[in-house]
């Protein structure tokens, strides 16, 4: 399963349990999307 987390601080804390469970986890910072608003791109 691929999990995409928001850019808030909580997403960094939530990432580890998903990785430990063998899931692929990215947050918006990993994707280079930090600060992008809905509808932009």
Question: What structural category characterises the helix and strand content?
Answer: alpha+beta
**Main sheet specs:** 2 strands, parallel
β-sheet strand percentage: 15-25%
Mean pLDDT over the residues: 84
Distance between the termini: 25 Å
Order of strands, main sheet, comes to: 1-2
- Indicate the radius of gyration in whole angstroms: 11 Å
Unreliable parts: none
Count of domains: 1
Number of helices: 2
State the shape. Answer: elongated
- Tell me the series of helices and strands, N- to C-terminal: EHEH
Number of strands: 2
Percentage of residues assigned to helices: 25-40%
Looking at this protein, list some descriptive labels.
single chain, 41 residues, alpha+beta, two-stranded parallel sheet, 2 helices, 20% strand, elongated
Structure commentary:
The chain is α+β, with helices and mostly antiparallel strands and 41 residues long. The chain has one domain. The protein contains two helices and two strands. The protein has helices at residues 9-20, 28-31, and strands at residues 2-5, 24-27. A two-stranded parallel ribbon has the order 1-2. Helix 1 links the parallel strand 1 and strand 2. It is elongated. It starts with a strand and ends in a 10-residue tail after the last helix. The model has no long low-confidence stretch (mean pLDDT 84).
Tell me the layout of helices and strands.
Blueprint (H helix, E strand, L loop, with lengths): L1 E4 L3 H12 L3 E4 H4 L10
């Amino acid at each position: 399963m691929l999990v995409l987390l928001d850019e808030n601080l909580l997403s960094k804390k939530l990432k580890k349990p998903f990785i430990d469970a063998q899931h692929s986890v990215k947050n918006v910072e990993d994707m280079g999307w930090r600060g992008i608003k809905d509808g932009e791109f």
